[in-house]
Amino acid sequence: MTNSLPSVAIPSLAIVVPCYNEEEMLPKTLATLLALRDSLLTKQKITNASKIYLVDDGSKDATWRLLAEAANQNSALVAIKLSRNKGHQNALYAGLCTTIEDITVSIDADLQDDPKNIEAMVDEYLKGSDVVFGVRSARTTDTFFKRFTAEGYYHVMKKMGVDLVFNHADFRLLSRRALIALQEYDESNLFLRGVVREIGFKSSVVAYERQAREAGESKYPLKKMLSFAWKGITAFSTAPLRMITVLGLVSGLASFALILWVLGVRLLTENAVPGWASVLLPLLFIGSVQLLCLGIIGEYMSKIYEEVKRRPKYHISDVIKKFE
Question: What is the pTM of this model?
Fold first, then answer.
């Protein structure tokens, strides 16, 4: 017996690559993805209508010039320029919404998510999966701090009730119907890792080892990582709001205990300064709790404010592609 794939129509493939200040990495990225496309064509796993969509997210270096030159020379490439920097998630979403192919794979321009695994994703699609998640089997290229914080984040999200695929970023395959379903989630605060899980179509996983970045520098320093993590929590979980109720109960019990302590000091000792404990301690404790609660509520109110304005996620200022 042979392990042949089911007999289905050969799909056209779109590879979406968001780019921000990637001029050092782009030559390697383009060469690698074009070679992969040729390999899949030779194996008759995709059609010749397959394209690579490269989205420039308002880069400040020569990224757009390189993308435009490449797209003018090769009909397999489509260069998309956003009018300004809108962030990784919006740039990725812009590319996804531009595609017309049967299946779409999203991958970052740094190629730390090994493109060789795209073939395995296509195979999973041919077996019937609408969504294929690329999952990191190892984080050997990450520092201890990044590995610890990243994996800890997934655990925290799970505790808060957010359905995420552990160690999955934005390296995934979507079928055409899964992508159409994704576009129905018209949210201003995009967190694609969470939204894709909400679709609910048949999914599978392809495990891979994350590679080291070959050129350029990471576009996600600690500040951006923390901001992205908090965005994911507030976009998909109301647990912080429920925690306020618990915190209020705990603070009430603690305040009652302080009252008993203050009364004990006042009645059982003669050295207590009149009024200091009964005023200062409850004031500091309850004040800090109130500020924390207001901050969490304010964060959710800001999300509501952004959603009700219904501003567009992006504007495309230019699209370059060579017609055959």
Answer: 0.74
